[in-house]
Amino acid sequence: MDSQTNILNHQQVCAILRRIAFQIAESHVDSSTLVLVGMNERGQFLSSLVAKELSSVLPSLNLKIHGVDAESDIHLAASQKQEVAGLPVIIMDDVINSGRSVARVVTAYFQAGAKSIQTAFLAEREYRDYPIAANWVGRSVATTLQDHVYFDNSNPESLRVYLAN
Asked: What pTM, to 2 d.p., does this model score?
């Protein structure tokens, strides 16, 4: 049986998401529109929470919310490409591991003509196979190859990040 070590509790997760929203707002205070992309189910869950925070911090900011399945080939529809062209994009996920999935999503949005692409993660492992730089991170975790970092959002009232080995 895997042992679990809590890394972040619910209050810490909420505080981190609020901080990330403020950091995004600070970087995009002069933007009129921003594309927020949630990777997979948990990234989409987190991006919706960050979007709520962003809306309260910058109420005039027009947010365009996208969700992508980063585990398969990423093909943006023509309407999505038009929506992204010339706009700043923030790609969000729960945990960045190897960077492979993020690299595919970054490539798709770069090819769609995004003005800029930045990334935000609730947690990151401190090694990667792909050279993806995280712009905003909640918590960096030193791990071994056998360790796994998980975000549990099965109960929205009790969010947590934990390490399993």
From this structure: 0.90
Q: What six digits make up the tokens of 152?
A: 């549990």
**Whether the Cβ atoms of residue 108 and residue 76 lie closer than 8 Å to each other:** yes
Among the listed residues 163, 164, 137, 162, the one whose alpha carbon sits nearest the alpha carbon of residue 10: 162
Question: Do 106 and 76 contact (CB within 8 A), yes or no?
Answer: no
Rounded Cα gap, residues 96 and 137, in angstroms: 9
Quote the CA–CA distance of 33 and 19 in Å, as a whole number. Answer: 20
CA separation for the pair 130, 30 (Å, rounded): 31
Q: What is the distance of C-alpha 148 from the center of its chain?
A: 18
CB 112 within 8 A of CB 88: no
Q: Report helix, strand and coil shares of the chain as percent, to nearest 5.
A: 35, 35, 35
> Which 8-state DSSP code applies to residue 133?
P
Per-residue pLDDT reduced to its tens digit, 13-66:
999 999 999 999 999 999 999 999 999 999 999 999 999 999 999 999 999 999
